[in-house]
Amino acid sequence: MAVRDNHPEPLPAIAGGEPVRETYLPYARQWIEEDDIEAVARVMRGDWLTTGPTLAEFEKQFAARVGARYAVAFSSGTAALHAACFAAGVGRGDEVITSPITFVASASCALYLGAKPVFADIDPRTYNIDPVEIEKKITPQTKAIIPVHFTGQPCDLDAIHALAEKHNLVVIEDACHALGAEYKGQPIGCLSDMTVFSFHPVKHITTGEGGMVTTNSGELYQWLLLFRNHGITRDRELMVEDQGPWYYEMLDVGFNYRLTDIQAALGLSQLRKLDRFLERRREIARTYNEAFASLPEVEIPYQAPYSRSSWHLYVLVLKLEHLKFDRRQVFEALRAENIGVNVHYLPVYRHPYYRWLGDPDSCSLSGFYCFHAEELYERIITLPLYPAMDNEDVNDVIQAVRRVISWARK
Ligand SMILES: *Cc1c(COP(=O)(O)O)cnc(C)c1O
């Protein structure tokens, strides 16, 4: 509050001032260094471009990093979600419960298999799916729960596992934001039936495109392998017969969802840097928290005592009652400062496809409507956060937020 009286902020760019910075600062991006490029080049000079030893090594080291028995790499996080649903036995007529505040892929994976996504509202403090709301949505058709660790903060997993046990459901964590996060001191990746990660360039480590499923179950592991490779196996234990050394069998309808060794080389090289990346993300989040805690017009991200976030996203919540402008105007003012703010996410069921799915005639949202998700969506802005940001970038974001909020306050 002292900020208001003692240090009047300069006019923001949207009101005719100079922008905080000249160049556009994206909300997220990869960090590729020379040794990453070298690692990729080494594989390209070798014998195996796909499904070779580098892929196997990436899976092995990734599994070890998250404390899981098995890891299976896929061509994207979305392919990994699809495979996890398949391995869970999700099929036509089943229901899969997930959060509305997520990327569309957390729900599309159910649609791919002819199942119905069902949205359970979020906890208004953590913005993660609320176990109490999950229980309300469980029916005899429910097959799986896909909790999403939004922004990298783990969901209330003990409560979710208790529900899963009681109702015999499979838990597939969407940990695409949460590589390196911890729940009650344990790494995300070894706590549920399956856990899904993404290696898109905005995520913690990248392979260009790529994803991973981790599991402790040997049986789920077999289904994941099968699905990634056309439903084909050469494993004699699984085959119906064995006609000779050339012989393989297709046991189900699978896809080509393989990750190349070229990508795995990049993944392995990036994985070695994960601790450094996490450290820097946490440091930036702390700096933001310290800068914004005293601004009465915004809420900094609440962190539950059981979670240690991996800070994929930093989401600032506007207290609109203290502002004379809405989220859109604040957003546009920050963009005018060359700060690449974003919004994560529109509640998934608000996309036109779901409106048509919900009720083709009236486009009604009644079946899906989640009060807290709606409330949150109106007020959120994602600030830039990635390890390659330097201190000046971080400072530009803080200056821009202070300037814009000062202009927007009532
Ligand atoms: C990125 C992301 C995905 C999809 O991952 P891709 O690798 O882009 O296919 C799924 N769920 C969430 C929550 C994500 O952030």
Q: How would you explain this protein's 3D organization?
A:
By secondary structure, the chain is of the alpha/beta class. It has two domains: 13-29 and 274-408, Aspartate Aminotransferase, domain 1, CATH 3.90.1150.10; 34-271, Type I PLP-dependent aspartate aminotransferase-like (Major domain) (Aspartate Aminotransferase, domain 2). It has helices spanning 2-6, 34-44, 53-66, 77-87, 105-112, 131-137, 157-167, 218-228, 261-271, 274-292, 327-336, 352-358, 371-377, 391-408, and strands spanning 70-74, 95-98, 116-119, 142-146, 170-174, 182-183, 186-187, 194-198, 211-215, 232-233, 249-250, 298-299, 307-308, 314-318, 380-383. The strands form four sheets. A seven-stranded mixed sheet has the order 1-9-8-5-4-2-3, sandwiched between helices. Strand 4, helix 7 (157-167) and strand 5 form a beta-alpha-beta unit. Helix 3 (53-66) packs parallel to helix 9 (261-271), helix 4 packs across helix 5 (105-112) and helix 4 (77-87) packs across helix 8 (218-228). The protein binds pyridoxal-5'-phosphate. Residues 76-78, 102-103, 105-106, 148, 174, 176-177, 198, 200, 211 line the site of pyridoxal-5'-phosphate.
